[in-house]
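INFO batch 0412 | record 1 of 1 | parsing
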Amino acid sequence: MRSWAQRLGAFSLAGSIASAGGCGPTEPGGAVNGGPATGGASGVSGAAGSGGAAGVPGSGGGAAGGGIGGNGATGGDALGGSGGINPGDGGSGGAPDASADVDSGPVSTVCGDGIRGLDEECDDGNTSNDDACTTTCFVNDFLCVTPPVNDSGKPASGRYLGEGRHPVAADADGFAVAYVEPGFAPPRIALNAFDPKGVRIASPLLVSTGTKSKPLLFSSPVVAALPGTKYAVAWTDFDGDGDSLGVALRLADPSAAPSGEPAHANKTTTFSQSDPDVLWTGTELVVAWVDDSDAVNGPDIRYRLFDAALNPQSTGDQTLADSPNAEANVALGTFGSTWAAAWRATTTNGSETLEARSGSTTWSVGPHVPPGTEDKPALAELDSSTLLVVFSAGSGAASKLRGALLSPSAPGVTAAIALDTGVTKAQSHPNAVRVGSRIYLSWREAAASGDPKAEELWLREVLWNSSTITLGAPLRLPRWDGHTPGDQRFPALAASPLAPEGALVTAWDDYGLVFGKDEGAPDVVVEFIPAPILRKNLMLDAGSG
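INFO prediction complete | emitting tokens
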């Protein structure tokens, strides 16, 4: 059997950023050095394939690219190395090994056994095609909620993914997606939960219950996964705190409907508090939002800490940013043993900077021309001392993805870097997340007008070797091709610890015809993608022909 690292070696890399970098050289005989990342441990000796001697131990590969073992004997390569999913299995022609590997656990023998095989994109072990993985073990686009069919024979749509930084959350118990249902007065906030393999575990959960909860179309719900298969959901609420907009906060248990009124994260109620983000750090819940109560300095960024039962850890709101600039679009991320925040700050002359803070350390990137008003930055931890912030800059067709490397040892003004120097189309809606040892970047990119298989949403792996970023080959997120320009918006990412190497949870608003475009509103589409990502048949990808 071949390891995942070998299969991923077919993907080309492009776009070196910062100082030096790139992939390691290829050695004779099929052994490939790992990419520019911290090296993995040496692999165990591979067992002999049919007609061949045992392979020598692997030399240890890069963490980002996956380690690839030493040369196997002719007639059946036997591959080792800790980067492979099943190191030590027999080579091609050898008998399948269904036992548990030391590094990787049980080995798949057939699609549908619930164990991901080397030639499978996924394997959830069930016989449904209406979830994250098809019966033929391909990653599948699927609707977050299975809607009733209307009179026209198409699914009745009407859900908007939360436009905050984290409308999707995941942990070892599964993942959940938060969204707005606009077809009610007032609109409703709901949550749908899934098991660790992407199978729906319950009916959608209505979160915005109670007489004081008045969500809006732009309520932008966000969600954080808490211990005990519970979730914290926050959203912009109208008049629930007694004065204009406030930040509603609710504990959601997919096994039971919430009762009573939602709480509010904000203690300050003057004017508006809105557009929240949430993050569970492992010990506390961080809720941050835009506060418009300062009549002198304008919008600021406030936050508050809670425990897993949503008990507040302070009597009042705390300040993240309070400057003469207008702060907005806050995003949270984990960093080391604590958390970090990034936001956009607009000056009085219309230029913009990207601001970030972790503890008492602050950074500033820019100035630059502001992007679209809805774009938020994103944070992903590269290592314990380096944080990647991703954002968009430039207006209209000039909007492009940018990044910056933030280190506590180099606070203050930080230079921006172009993440893809060869792109010509407008880019927006950036996102980034760390999945195990890998970092993934997603974004929206303008599709060519008139393209019958127009593509909007893209995904790339970010490789890091402690000084240099290298981007993997771009992958199309959607797996079906019924798109026209403008169909796909607001991609969201979350990291699942699915064994053995994690998985990527992604969701977006989709106006595609198959998902109910005739109804005039989008629906929420979800994908659950085990890492390392394998695209077994690129013809399934939208826009690939």
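INFO post-check: The first strand starts at residue 13 and ends at 18.
INFO record closed
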